[in-house]
Amino acid sequence: GSVVASYPYDDSPTHRPTGVYSKSADDEVFKYLAKAYASHHPIMRTGKPNCPGEEGETFPDGITNGAQWYDVEGGMQDYNYVWANCFEITLELSCCKYPLTAELPKEWENNRESLLAFIEKV
């Protein structure tokens, strides 16, 4: 896990594991939507999730192009964009894939304003 808003494409023509910006035709729209979410999240907006084992990982403005972060062939957000014309971003909300129940109220507080800002854009 991490704390970042990721946008298409997740796959790249070269299939290099990381570092390839894979721009979609709607790249600016995706960046706008990802920033709308990230800019209201207290951790995501810093671009420094500080996840254990990945302390040096950074994401400018709290967002990333999926393939630039890591290449995923056959991912759902790419499939939905290409085949169903759905504009989808992926939200990584926690360093931990399965946070403890006691941590959920804090996760809600971290994400409430982001969710509202994102809904307003829709």
TrEMBL record:
A GO BP entry: peptide metabolic process
Domain Peptidase M14 per the UniProt entry, residue ranges: 1-122
Keyword field: Carboxypeptidase, Hydrolase, Protease
PROSITE patterns registered for this protein in UniProt: PEPTIDASE_M14
Single GO MF descriptor: zinc ion binding
Residues annotated as the enzyme's active site: E92 (proton donor/acceptor)
Any one GO cellular component localisation term in the record: extracellular space
Alphabetical list of InterPro entries matching this protein: Peptidase_M14 (IPR000834), Peptidase_M14_domain (IPR050753)
Membership in a protein family: Belongs to the peptidase M14 family.
Name the record gives this protein: CBPD Carboxypeptidase
Organism: Acrocephalus arundinaceus
Lineage: Eukaryota, Metazoa, Chordata, Craniata, Vertebrata
